[in-house]
Write a structure and sequence with these properties.
heterodimer, A: about 70 residues, mainly beta, OB fold (Dihydrolipoamide Acetyltransferase, E2P), 4-stranded antiparallel beta sheet, 8 strands, about 0% helix, B: about 525 residues, alpha/beta, 2-enoyl-CoA Hydratase, Chain A, domain 1, 3 domains, 8-stranded mixed beta sheet, 7-stranded mixed beta sheet, 22 helices, 17 strands, about 40% helix, elongated
């Protein structure tokens, strides 16, 4: 089952930690974004394989923007 | 003809045997699912051999729909008292091996009695839930009994600690009993809580959902916030309950147990400065701060996976139980949202009810901005924190680790909200808003009309930062009692706790406040 990973809040993508094909565990950092002048880690909601990374550094995201997909 | 003593003995033994054994096939099924039976759970929860059972031979008095023939001793719940860590507690455990643990009239009344009596005797009450639900054959009799449970839970609230463990299904209206208690434990994979089950949902809304997706441990400890602690199995769950109780007093008005932890009250925490990065945009895990501060690194986190931008839980300092409330910078930047407010406010009120000092570790960028937050009532929910902190008369110590912006500063317990000690680290930043936003408001015309707007903006930002970074303003304006070096945080909190040991504060006479909920 594909699990969408969403941005938790309005902000800007800083860098990508995971890439498609990576095996990740629950709570592993996938992407680092910036919001409220803070770096925020977007973590894997569950263990699995990263199938998609939908954003690039510099992209603006809204809450609920799907930034990655895990299957 | 009257029965002989031998006949009475033999009959008693037969009934007791039925109560103790229950339905052997059900017990086997429990074990196959990795679960313990109700009696095994009670035995492992309590100190070995201390359980004293009450109303073992109680049966339902309802005879409708064949209940006269089906009734069983205990009526599907084991109740009584014993000790945990040498201290008395009341306990009840629903027994799936008897009438599927369904709640009947006698069953409900036994649970209500256990809660009422725990409250009267000033001892904690622990409920272990595992039931198929209300016994529909018993109609209004069971409805009345469940009502008595809710009333008993509500009246006991704040008088004695009430702890619930969901160790199987806990469904329908019965799930409001644990909801009225202070802490809910769930077992991963084998416990579910919901009001309407999958079949009713399918019928009414057409949604397909499994019991686990609807009300499993993951849902309630991460999304709904209905449960506090998740355990991997029954044994771990029961051990966690024992551990939680070790932090708590037996009743309101009694100080929490003092433990000789062997940790040095003059211990410096040298690496705190490196755990918390100086640069305020860098994030860190505040649990690493708390674990370095508390005695022996022993911290019992509550709701660890719900509203993770706010950390709450129990630890000890100088052997004394304290409650921690801390912003978590590595989750949503530590901003306070609806769920974080609820989580913190509820915990603060528990600590205040049970004489547990509150240590607040603040590093907060603000309330969470956004349409969704406003529409879900961040005003109403955020108000809970202000209310709970102001209402609390236990010792309140706040440490500003790094920053506080906007109204969220107050939500982390300032002196104005009654902090007895407010300490700041040297690098603290305290302002109404961030430099860039503030400068754009304060100097908009000046910047717009400047020959080089960017240059003026940069200059004003630098001025603003100079004005508000560091502890100077906070000290000069008596916002903080003192600036402390990070390494001496533990020592300074312990010294404050000792000074506050006899703290007493009266409030205006009234029936009760109207907490925003």
């Amino acid at each position: 089952m594909a699990i969408p990973v969403t941005a938790p809040m309005v902000g800007k993508i800083l860098n990508l930690v995971a890439k498609p094909g990576d095996q990740v565990n629950e709570d592993d950092t996938l992407i680092v974004m910036e919001a409220m002048k803070m770096e925020i880690e977007i973590v894997a909601p569950s263990s699995g394989t990263v199938t998609d990374i939908n954003v690039a550094p510099g992209d603006s995201v809204d809450p609920d923007t799907v930034v990655a997909v895990i299957a | 003809m009257a029965q002989t003593r031998e006949e009475i003995e033999a009959r008693l033994r037969r009934i007791e045997q039925r109560a103790l054994e229950g339905d052997v096939r059900v017990a086997e099924r429990q074990r196959a699912e990795g679960k313990l039976t109700a009696r095994e759970r009670v035995a492992r929860l309590l100190d070995s051999g201390t359980f004293v059972e009450e109303f073992m031979l109680a049966e339902t008095q309802v005879t409708d729909f064949g209940m006269a023939e089906r009734r069983m001793p205990t009526d599907g719940v084991v109740t009584g008292f014993g000790t945990i860590g040498g201290r008395p507690v009341y306990v009840f455990a629903q027994d799936r091996t008897i009438l599927q643990g369904a709640v009947g009239q006698a069953h409900g009344e036994k649970i209500a009695y256990a809660i009422e009596t725990a409250c009267k005797m000033g001892v904690p009450v622990i409920g272990l839930y595992d039931s198929v639900g209300a016994r529909i054959q018993e109609g209004l009799d069971v409805t009345k009994a469940i009502g008595k449970i809710f009333y008993a839970n509500s009246i006991a609230s704040g008088a004695v600690p009430q702890i619930s463990a969901i160790m199987g299904p806990c469904i329908g209206v019965a799930s409001y009993s644990p909801a009225l208690t202070d802490f809910i434990f769930m077992v991963r994979g084998t416990s579910q809580m919901f009001i309407t089950g999958p079949s009713v949902i399918k019928e009414v809304t057409g949604e397909d959902v499994t019991m686990e997706e609807l009300g499993g441990a993951k849902v309630h400890t991460e999304v709904s916030g209905c449960a506090d602690v998740v355990a991997d199995d029954d044994d771990a769950c029961l051990a966690q309950i024992r551990r939680l109780l070790s932090f708590l007093p037996s009743r309101s008005g009694e100080p929490p147990p003092r433990v000789d932890t062997g940790d040095d009250s003059d211990r410096l925490v040298d690496d705190l400065e490196s755990v918390v990065p100086a640069e305020s945009r860098r994030s860190y895990n505040v649990l690493n701060v708390i674990k370095r501060l508390v005695d022996g690194g022993d911290f019992f986190e509550i709701k660890g996976r719900f509203a993770r931008n706010m950390v709450v839980g129990f630890g000890r300092l100088d052997g004394q139980t304290v409650g921690f409330v801390a912003n978590q910078p590595n989750w949503l930047a530590g901003a306070i949202d609806v769920d974080a407010s609820d989580k913190a406010a509820r915990f603060i009120r528990f600590c205040d009810a049970f004489s547990i000092p509150i240590i607040t570790l603040a590093d907060v960028p603000g309330f969470m901005p956004g349409v969704a937050q406003e529409k879900t009532g961040i005003i109403r929910h955020g108000a809970k924190m202000l209310y709970a902190y102001s209402e609390a008369t236990v010792p309140k110590i706040t440490v500003y680790l790094r920053k506080g912006y906007g109204g969220a500063k107050q939500a982390m317990c300032t002196r104005e909200l009654g902090a007895d000690q407010l300490l700041v680290w040297p690098g603290v930043e305290l302002a109404v808003m961030g430099a860039e936003g503030a400068v754009n408001v304060l100097y908009r015309r000046e910047i717009e009309s400047a020959a080089d707007p960017d240059d003026v903006r940069r200059q004003k930002i630098a001025e603003f930062n100079e004005r508000f970074s560091g502890p100077f303003d906070a000290l000069s304006k008596q916002f903080a009692h003192a600036v402390i070096r990070p390494a001496e945080t533990r020592i300074r909190i312990i010294r404050a706790l000792r000074m506050l040991a006899n703290k007493h504060e009266d409030r205006p006479r009234k029936k009760h406040g109207i907490m925003p909920v």
